[in-house]
Amino acid sequence: MRVLVVEDEQLLADAVATGLRREAMAVDVVYDGAAALERIGVNDYDVVVLDRDLPLVHGDDVCRRIVELGMPTRVLMLTASGDVSDRVEGLEIGADDYLPKPFAFSELIARVRALGRRTSVPLPPVLERAGIKLDPNRREVFRDGREVQLAPKEFAVLEVLMRSEGAVVSAEQLLEKAWDENTDPFTNVVRVTVMTLRRKLGEPPVIVTVPGSGYRI
Questions:
Q1: What stretches pass through the bilayer (predicted)?
Q2: Fewest CB atoms within 10 A around its CB: which of 18, 20, 57, 124?
Q3: CATH assignment of 125-214, given 3.40.605.10, 1.10.10.10, 3.10.580.10, 1.10.860.10?
């Protein structure tokens, strides 16, 4: 899942991004509304965690722009105000969910994951295919009943492949969904991660390389 965090309190923004990355999400961070508009015009995000009171361009205007573009991106709006009227107003302009500050990080994670599931064809909370069982919420993976310990990027790649339900996923798509924009697209990071993932999942191999196209399970 790829997430954009838009928050002008830099320490909070960076802390949220770090936490989301630990949950195997690819995260980009910006600190004002103008930069947010630039990013959503370039990258495809599953979820935008959007502070409402932003400098340069207000969070409401960023949210309206996402709606105007008809993007499948879901918006989780953050605000220091807990007033019901503010929450209603935020939802009316197009936000998909609303979370007042201060918030419990576990709740933020749960809401981001719930919104991420709504950006595509509905899938069960636990993904199963080819003897693999993947639980995104618990961050657990089992192969034929055996638990498999994965690093965050390995988990993210496996989740993308599992969600594709047998369709081929290109290296570019994996790079877009599992890594942030600071990753050099000309590195072999995808190939190396897939190789490590194959080894950890064990025999027989379940990740198939489709020459010239990408990977599938």
A1: none
A2: 124
A3: 1.10.10.10
